[in-house]
Write a structure and sequence with these properties.
Elements: H1 6-18, H2 27-36, E1 45-49, H3 52-57, H4 59-73, E2 78-82, E3 94-97, E4 103-106, H5 114-121, E5 131-135, H6 153-156, H7 174-179, H8 184-192, H9 195-205, H10 217-226, E6 233-238, H11 247-254, H12 256-270, E7 274-280, H13 284-299, E8 315-321, H14 330-337, E9 361-365, H15 366-370, H16 372-378, H17 380-384, E10 394-401, E11 407-412, H18 417-424, E12 434-439, E13 445-447, H19 458-463, E14 472-477, H20 482-496, H21 502-518, H22 529-550, H23 554-558, H24 561-569, H25 571-580, E15 594-596, H26 606-610, E16 616-617, E17 625-626, H27 636-640, E18 646-648
Parallel strand pairs: 1-2, 6-7, 6-9, 7-8, 10-14
Antiparallel strand pairs: 1-3, 3-4, 4-5, 10-11, 12-13, 12-14, 15-18, 16-17
Helix pairs in contact: 8-12, 8-16, 9-10, 9-12, 11-12, 11-13, 20-21, 21-22, 22-24, 24-25
């Protein structure tokens, strides 16, 4: 394709792609778009996964090394900062596309491997590095002996709909997004559908909110559309504060234009002219790419006044939120946007009736909105083909913890937990056996062995007393102490409580006090500690239930879930801590008692040298001993011993 000037390219994409309803009948268009989207190239292109996960793994250094290689050799290569394809365990990931050849993906490409990689691949040789796979299509010649990337075990069990462009395009390029079908749904919607028609299509698709509530998105929109007001607002909740959950951040960093398109369609559907994307301020890369993408979209006339001469006015404001969990609660979020302290309010009235500045406001989370352009483009029946009778579409999860393959995944509703852990995750990463899955950190729900074959479905999860949660999917094995984990969650919620309601403010503090006592040995000369400890344990369940029933917002209601789930599923571990003062997983530091097996000890002095409090005595080439009164249970002696002579009781 002959290169177009930026203005000519812009006019081409607007007039012959976005505004032409007969675009699919133009046979030449597909080939031209394949060049713009970089599916077909005239010169080599290299993509480096530069999402936050990639940068943490060293992608920045890899990118710099590639740039230096290109400069040193004077080669005409386009180098692109891409997003995340989802397989975070293989970062840094480098994709290379040569003219006429399929795009091929390499994992764990540290900076010291760059020269070897490029020396080989630019000479059409496959280097002896970790090859993830190649992207096969009808327009490129495949590499011999390289499997398709989506045959990789991490991807083969997934259905990538929301993640389709992630890691494949330049995230901020509006041209590439349009060339791959982006903004088509928006352009068609404002020219051929009324807001009421959009709400009906979304309701017909049976899309439910992915923020945990599971309420019908179409019904929610329709109710707000019916509400008379001189001003309405659309708010995208991009806070995502749960530990172990980052899939919304990934898709914003990797495909921000999809979110922009979804927000402006949603705003049109409810009659809003102003919309906010509320995002945690520390998501700096996501904010940077989102703002750049908004600027690019505005340059194409996709935002602002009288969009494409349709009379539609919609604009987006990116609002940075504080580093606080409670900001994800919709009433607290609205308060923050108004410039107030982010504290939750009692409901009703709901924000859809009385939200920002007392005007009707729809709050949807990122994942829910990501579905919107796809439903409008492909139809509600297309969306309903995926999933179960009760739960339609796909679901994003952040797969992490003690699992071999980890990252952001997308599976059809109805997938079992067993398939995610073993087929996609590859099973537990170490020698320890599987213990549980934490489904949504904020809900503290545990999926144990007996529920592994349950499907991910709103109704089926409800039947086993759990919920979909926020998207965190953390695999834990037998090396994890569930009591210690419950204490960690309790401490997290105590620190994140805004303090507005007494059940949450005081309850989380009291729960943490009890959990700390349970995981400690009684102090000397404190005869009342055992009684206090016993009283606390007896109050644990009733206190947790009161918090769930009386707290003002989801944070307080969720805070005791980890303790209740541990009592319900791992009571034997609680009993061991309470009655035997032992931690079965040997994790709780204050309950560990170290000793040395004199038959195994060689007197190498490795433990003696590591002990920070001089609790180990002995001489070289003779067995050593641990003075229990001095030992602080740090475990450095256990880690240092090469003869398994240090024992934990």
């Amino acid at each position: 394709m002959k290169a177009k000037s930026p203005d000519a390219l812009k006019q081409f994409l607007i007039n012959q792609v976005l505004l032409d309803p007969n675009r699919l009948e133009n046979e030449r268009l597909e080939k031209e778009l394949s060049y713009i989207s970089r599916e077909r190239v005239n010169n080599p292109i290299i993509y480096v996964g530069m999402g936050t996960c990639g940068l943490i793994a060293g992608a920045g250094k890899t990118f710099k090394a590639i740039q230096e290689y290109i400069d040193d050799h004077g080669i005409d290569i386009e180098l692109i900062k891409g997003g995340c394809i989802g397989l975070c365990s293989a970062e840094p990931i480098v994709d290379i596309q040569l003219p006429g050849k399929s795009r091929i993906s390499f994992g764990n490409v540290k900076q010291d491997k760059v020269q070897y990689l490029l020396d080989e691949i630019l000479n059409h040789n496959i280097p002896d590095l970790q090859t993830i796979g190649q992207y096969k299509n009808d327009i490129s010649q495949p590499w011999e002996g390289i499997n398709p990337i989506f045959d990789h075990s991490f991807f083969s069990g997934q259905q990538r709909v929301l993640l389709d462009n992630c890691g494949l395009i330049d995230p901020v390029s509006v041209e590439q997004y349009i060339a791959r079908g982006g903004y088509w749904a928006f352009a068609d919607t404002i020219s051929s559908l009324t807001p009421k028609g959009v709400c009906q299509l979304i309701e017909e698709s049976e899309l439910s909110g992915r923020g945990g509530g599971g309420y019908s998105t179409g019904k929610k929109w329709a109710n707000t559309l019916k509400t008379f007001s001189d001003q309405k607002f659309l708010v995208c909740n991009a806070v995502e504060s749960d530990p172990g959950s980052y899939m919304n951040r990934v898709i914003i960093e990797s495909n921000p234009h999809r979110l922009i398109e979804a927000v402006i369609i949603a705003a049109y559907a409810i009659g809003a002219t102003k919309s906010f994307i509320f995002i945690r301020q520390e998501f700096k890369l996501a904010i940077e790419r989102l703002e750049k993408a908004i600027e690019n979209a505005r340059g194409y006339g996709l935002l602002g006044h009288h969009i494409f001469d349709s009379g539609v006015n919609i604009d987006i404001i990116v609002k940075r939120g504080a580093r606080a969990f409670v900001c994800g609660e919709e009433t607290a979020l609205n308060n923050s946007i108004e410039g107030k302290r982010a504290m939750p309010e009692s409901k009703p009235p709901y924000p859809s009736e009385k939200g920002l500045w007392n005007k009707p406001t729809i709050v949807n989370n990122v994942e829910t909105l990501f579905n919107i352009p796809l439903i409008l483009k492909n139809g509600p029946d297309w969306f309903k083909k995926t999933g179960t009778d009760n739960s339609k579409g796909t679901k994003l999860f952040t797969l992490s913890g003690k699992v071999k393959n980890y990252g952001t995944i997308e599976v059809p509703m109805g997938t079992t937990f067993r398939d995610i852990v073993w087929k996609i995750g590859g099973g537990t990463s170490g020698k320890q056996k599987f213990k549980a899955v934490i489904l949504g950190i904020n809900s503290g729900n545990y999926i144990t062995k007996k529920n592994l074959d349950n499907r991910i479905d709103y109704e089926e999860l409800k039947s086993i007393g759990t919920s979909l949660g926020s998207g965190g999917f953390v695999v834990i094995d037998e090396s994890t102490c569930m009591v210690d984990l419950a204490k960690y969650f309790t401490n997290f919620f105590k620190n994140e409580s805004c303090g507005k309601c007494i059940p949450c403010r005081e309850g989380t503090a009291r729960l943490l006090e009890i959990m700390e006592v349970v995981t400690q040995r009684p102090g000397k000369n404190n005869h009342f500690q055992s009684l206090e400890r016993f009283k606390g344990v007896m109050q644990l369940r009733s206190l947790a239930n009161v918090m769930r029933d009386t707290s003002l917002c989801a944070l307080g209601k969720s805070a005791p879930n980890a303790i209740l789930n541990t009592l319900n599923n791992f009571k034997e571990e609680f009993d061991a801590h309470i009655f035997e003062r032992k931690c079965p997983a040997n994790v709780c530091r204050d309950l560990r008692v170290f000793s040395i097996d004199v038959d195994l000890c060689t007197g190498c002095t490795a433990c003696y040298k590591k002990c920070p409090v001089d609790a180990i005595i002995g001489s070289a080439r003779h067995p050593h001993f641990i003075v229990e009164e001095k030992c602080i249970g740090c475990g450095l002696c256990y880690d240092a011993c090469k003869f398994n002579a240090v024992l934990i009781q």
